[in-house]
């Protein structure tokens, strides 16, 4: 699990894609809402 900004998310996806293409697998990206108490 990783927490990042939208810009960092795009950079992460671009970095992970070559690895997934070479070795297979999936990368799941999901949006969540932060709720402070």
Instruction: Tell me the span between the first and last alpha carbons.
Output: 21 Å
Write the element-wise H/E pattern from the N-terminal end onward.
Answer: H
Which spans of ≥5 residues are poorly predicted at pLDDT below 50?
none
Reported for the largest beta sheet, the result is: none
Number of helical regions: 1
Strand segment tally: 0
Strand content of the residues, in percent? under 5%
What's the short version?
49% of the residues lie in helices and 0% in strands. The protein has one helix at residues 6-23.
Structure description:
The chain is mainly α. The protein has one domain (1-27). Helix content is 49%, strand content 0%.
Based on the model shown, name its key terms.
mainly alpha; 49% helix; 37 residues; elongated
Task: Record the SSE blueprint.
Layout: H1 6-23
């Amino acid at each position: 699990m990783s927490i990042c900004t939208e810009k960092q998310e795009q950079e992460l996806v671009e970095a992970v894609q070559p690895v997934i293409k070479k070795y297979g697998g999936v990368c799941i990206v999901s949006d969540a809402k932060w709720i402070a108490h």
